[in-house]
Amino acid sequence: SRDYSAPVNFISAGLKKSAAEDVSEEDSDEDEKPVKQEEIPKEFVPKKLKTGGNFKPSQKGFVGGTKSFVDFGSWERHTKGIGQKLLQKMGYVPGRGLGKNAQGIINPIEAKQRKGKGAVGAYGSERTSQSLQDFPVVDSEEEAEEEFQKELSQWRKDPNGGKKKPKYSYKTVEELKAKGRINKQLSAPQKELSQVKVIDMTGREQKVYYSYSQISHKHNIPDDSPQQPLGKDSKPQGFALPELEHNLQLLIDITEQEIIQNDRQLQYERDMVVNLTHEIQKMSEVLSHEETAISNLSKVLEMVEECERRMQPSCENPLTLDECAKIFETLQDKYYEEYRMSDRVDLAVAIVYPLMKDYFKNWDPLKDCTYGTEIIAKWKNLLENDQLLSHSGQDLSTDAFHRLMWEIWMPYVRNIVAQWQPRNCGSMVDFLDSWVNVVPVWILDNILDQLIFPKLQKEVESWNPLTDTVPIHSWIHPWLPLMQARLEPLYSPIRNKLANALQKWHPSDSSAKLILQPWKDVFTPGSWEAFMVKNIVPKLGMCLNELIINPHQQHMDAFYWVIDWEGMISVSSLVGLLEKHFFPKWLQVLCSWLSNSPNYEEITKWYLGWKSMFSDQVLAHPSIKDKFNEALDIMNRAVSSSVGGYMQPGARENIAYLTHTERRKDFQYEAMQERREAENMAQRGIGMAASSVPMNFKDLIQTKAEEHNIVFMPVIGKRHEGKQLYTFGRIVIYIDRGVVFVQGEKTWVPTSLQSLIDMAK
């Protein structure tokens, strides 16, 4: 057992080391022996301070102590010496300071006893030689104070009674230059303060100084106060020589100022030499550029003079427009800067304009519309100003090409347009089409607005649709690509003239359609529909009223006259005409026919014949569907009501089959239209996805039920003739070959999809 009551002397911490590591540490301890005092350099051994009074420096600490450098780090004798080893590995040399440049503290901080009981600094600087060596401080105030003390000591007598040798301080020229550079940075207010008159009344007598700098030297000379009586050991003090001092100081200051001024002048001259060197380089570059420009301009001038010489009438080789264009191309390629800087307007007026006039003197635009387009396009690239390519407006003073076209080319166009007949529009349209990419936009606008449009307007006013054999659209519509909206003012008088011509028109005259059809896409949809409703639809309604429906001898001319306008008038207008003027008479004839024991085969043929007269677009309209479905319902009721009378064999089955077939066609057409619409919406990305497009009639019914929030689901275990029954809201239905049958009172009745939705709601 162990005795745990004994006191603990040492507590181990960390990892347990091996025996080999212990042996290596012992060897390192043997190598680290204490440094003897004799081995330390003498300059690193601190001196003992002479202290006075009751001040006793501490013998244990470093601050104010007298321990030698040997005691520094003496605690390591009780350790493994790891700190000393780490310092040596990092390049530390015993006896020198720490840091890269050995500027750290070597000796402990020494204490210095103050002479009296005054404040800090009252008896001069309290820094020791050791502290100044270890902590070098650059302080201008301290340097000035030291300099002041040195100068002051020269005025004092040697306390030993000997003659004190004066000490002189010298300034080098470099120091004066540095001082001059610093003083040069003084601002104007500081210079003014240095020349202020100062009155010193701190002493017994009033003293006057002429600058603040003189105050700092007021202690250089001992006070002029009466001296104390000389004692037995005292010696007389020195005499003041202010005049001599002033003169000497003045000479020194003048010399210093001359040195500083000469240094500044030298620096200024050097800077001037550098600036002039750069200026010479710049001027040499400018000179070379100017020489190149002069050479290029001289060559350009020679080419221009050559052009002028060849333009003289006496020249054997006169200049042509093509050759002149090649010369301008040379100027633009080889001398681009000079060409852009030159006044191209004056140059073109002097050279190109006469050649252009001579080139177009025998030109007839309507006979040869492409004459000159290539050469003018070439001159456009040569003369047109880049800043005017937007054609925002006309500025003839800055663009030579625009002025050329306006003054040379435009007069020929004015003469031709003045002689031109608007009804012969082909040659004029071809002429402007061939020049549209060459002529400036504002010039083309001027031609169309000021020359062409007034001629067309005057011709429209004189046009009479009843007497003129040439239709108006043949000489108005060719201008649509060029003029477009500019022709809008002509449309209103054209519609008025056409309306007046249609007052006595009858639908049997097909010439009206030939005249109006080209204007359908030219007029706006609103104005076209209003024109049709006002002038055509009433005439067609009168024609339908005159139509006599006779199953035994039917005349279809009036009906054809109306149906022939289907593409001209809107579907809604045509459906309105049929509902008002055709179907009432048609259903009345059907009812009267069914009441006289008819032949149902003839009725079926008659029904299908009339239905085939209408286009799919008209038949798809809900109102037309309802009318034909009403006819089917009338035939079904007629077949069902004649129970006791004579009935043609197979009539009921034929009518039922007809009804089934027609309803199925309607449903299939609806499904196809729905499918097309859904596919278009899916392709545009604004409708249903492609997977949701109905693939059969059942999917179509389900889609409609979802749109109208109607429950559509199969009835479990219920069938009719092998067909699955469904509930569509409160109605029971089944689907057979694309036809919906609804459960009635006695039998299943086929119905349309829209009627099914209305019944379910």
Descriptive overview:
GO terms for molecular function: nucleic acid binding. The chain has 761 residues and is mainly α. Among the domains are: 505-684, no CATH class; 697-760, no CATH class. 52% of the residues lie in helices and 5% in strands. It is built from 29 helices and 7 strands. It has helices spanning 19-31, 82-89, 129-134, 140-153, 173-184, 188-193, 242-310, 321-334, 336-341, 344-359, 373-383, 400-419, 425-435, 441-461, 473-476, 480-483, 488-501, 511-516, 525-535, 537-545, 557-563, 571-581, 583-594, 600-611, 616-619, 622-641, 651-684, 697-707, 753-760, and strands spanning 198-200, 207-209, 712-720, 723-728, 731-736, 739-743, 748-751. The strands form 2 sheets. Strands 3-4-5-6-7 form a 5-stranded antiparallel β-sheet. β4 and β5 form a beta hairpin. Mean pLDDT is 75; it is low at 11-24, 28-69, 220-238, 386-394 and 686-694.
Quick tags:
two-stranded antiparallel ribbon, TFP11/STIP/Ntr1, 761 residues, 7 strands, mainly alpha, TFP11 protein, 5% strand, elongated, five-stranded antiparallel beta sheet
Concise overview:
With 761 residues, the chain is mostly helical. It has 29 helices and 7 strands.
Termini separation comes to 105 Å
Rounded mean pLDDT score = 75
Give the biggest sheet: 5 strands, antiparallel
Strand content: under 5%
Unreliable spans? 11-24, 28-69, 220-238, 386-394, 686-694
- Estimated radius of gyration: 62 Å
Q: What is the overall shape?
A: elongated
Question: How do the strands of the widest beta sheet line up side by side?
Answer: 3-4-5-6-7
Task: Estimate the helix proportion, in percent.
Answer: 40-55%
Number of strands: 7
Number of alpha- plus pi-helical segments: 29
Q: Helices and strands: which structural class? A: mainly alpha
